[in-house]
């Protein structure tokens, strides 16, 4: 469109200049022919003859000498600026509008003997306007066609460029969502095709690496499960022997008694670690399942504390007759871990509160110990993590909180850790009262 507009403006200027040059040429030639070599006095008849000689189907003229004028062109059409330019000896022109039509007024001065004549002609620019209108129509038609053609070419070019980019973006999103089999079709041999080849090679390498890591992870889990299972039989025998040694420790020499008690303690620790590893293996393999029952929450909490001799060590606040559909064995595992950690690592008093929220049972275990530091909180549920920096060194496996959290998630709930405003750690267990049907 810009090219067409420029061509139109240039052609319009040329057409107008040609019309103006033709009018000026006709004026000067006619004046030379009729007036320049005529030395007769400037009478009205002489002025009329000059005006008539210059008038034809294209031009209307008027000749002026002093106060005399003759011709078919009214002097009112000639502007004062144009007359001043002609009186100054110039061949001048000016475009004026007469009855809504643009016309060209041209003028020149003739010195003949002692007389000075001014000659003006009026020529219509309507033919030039018609030519300019036709040119404008053609220019706009050409420009419009060129614009449409250019848009079509641009759309085709953009489509050919953007389609591979969109496909690359979509493939990257699929890969980011876990579809490692996402690949691109390679078309051509340009830079985009090279990018598609690079993406496919990267995806292949990533897919192979992830498959390798998955196999290694599966092998590691199977190894842990197999080792834990194989250790159960010898550990059972070792536990029986350790129990006998602990019972007879009082009859043994001091060093032998201490060794017997140490063997018994470490055997129990090893048994607990193996049991925890087997429980984690069940979660990882998806073999862990809920055995749901309608449970009186307050009674289940008291039973868990009573079984471990913690009833007098823990302050409780629980509503009566709160029944929820839970797996009592798994809830007992969670409570034993949370309360046990609070008693061993926190400060007294240890409190356990139970509250009912719409659709949920909320159990909170709090202590008044040093609490959990900011660098411990993000990792407190990680496997084998021990918060040695904030609590006394633990002889546990570092799997207790991880197993407690897995049990909460298995119910469709959550287990979170935080600090009490007045000091101490707070662990909050939220369980759906409908057995995880959420």
Which key terms come to mind for this protein?
438 residues; alpha+beta; five-stranded mixed sheet; 53% helix; rod-shaped
Residue windows where pLDDT falls under 50 for at least 5 positions? 389-393
Strand order of the largest sheet: 2-1-5-4-3
Radius of gyration: 53 Å
Dominant shape: rod-shaped
Beta-strand residue percentage: 15-25%
Question: In percent, how helical is the residue content?
Answer: 40-55%
Sheet bearing the most strands, described?
Answer: 5 strands, antiparallel
Q: What is the count of β-strands?
A: 12
Order of helices and strands: HHEEHEEEHHHEHEEHEEHEE
Structural class: alpha+beta
The average pLDDT is 81
Helical segment count: 9
Give the termini distance in whole angstroms.
63 Å
Model description:
- With 438 residues, the protein is an alpha+beta fold.
- The protein is 53% helix and 18% strand.
- The chain has helices spanning 2-34, 44-54, 80-87, 126-176, 191-247, 254-285, 297-307, 328-345, 400-410, and strands spanning 59-65, 68-71, 92-98, 101-112, 115-124, 293-296, 314-317, 323-326, 350-357, 360-366, 414-419, 425-432.
- The protein has a five-stranded antiparallel β-sheet with strand order 2-1-5-4-3, sandwiched between helices.
- Helix 1 runs antiparallel to helix 4 and helix 5 (191-247) packs antiparallel against helix 6.
Note the topology.
Blueprint (H helix, E strand, L loop, with lengths): L1 H33 L9 H11 L4 E7 L2 E4 L8 H8 L4 E7 L2 E12 L2 E10 L1 H51 L14 H57 L6 H32 L7 E4 H11 L6 E4 L5 E4 L1 H18 L4 E8 L2 E7 L33 H11 L3 E6 L5 E8 L6
Parallel strand pairs: 7-9
Antiparallel strand pairs: 1-2, 1-5, 3-4, 4-5, 6-8, 9-10, 10-12, 11-12
Helix pairs in contact: 1-2, 1-4, 4-5, 5-6, 6-9, 7-8, 8-9
